[in-house]
Amino acid sequence: MKRLLVTVLSMEAVVALLAIVPAKTLGHASAGTAGAVCGAIAIMALALCGYLGRGRGALYAGSVFQALVIASGVLLPAMYILGAIFAALWFTGIWLGRKWEPASAVQEPR
User: Fold this and answer.
1) Burial 54-74 (b: 16+ CB within 10 A, else e)
2) pTM, whole model, 2 decimals?
3) Among residues 42, 84, 90, 93, which one has the fewest Cβ atoms lying within 10 Å of its Cβ?
């Protein structure tokens, strides 16, 4: 599960950084606001990547982070859509991880 969720968070960081220029160009926010919001999201996502695998607290922190990304749509409207997409990927990753882990625990190592 950890590998899947780290992939979701790292891709979220990349997409958040790539969203700066369109947000500024389309006039959704000033360059400073877009850079600050998207930069903070990217830094927090990468910090959470290091925190994953340390228990249930990381899953809760990641879920709260997804809610914060959606809430950042108040400052940058594009984050409503991006946040919803990545929240869906996050919760799907948790669901798939919990579904696969019991099956992999039964298999014996080679």
Assistant:
1) eeeebbebbeebbeebbebbe
2) 0.82
3) 84
Q: Classify residue 55 by its DSSP letter.
A: -
Report how far residue 92's alpha carbon sits from residue 96's, in angstroms, rounded to the nearest whole number: 6
Cα separation of 56 and 72, whole Å?
A: 25
CB neighbours (10 Å) of residue 110? 3
d(CA 86, CA 97): 16
Structure tokens at 50: 């290091």
Q: Do the Cβ atoms of 66 and 16 come closer than 8 Å?
A: no
Residue 28 phi, psi (nearest 5) = -70, -30
Q: Are 70 and 87 in contact (CB under 8 A)?
A: yes
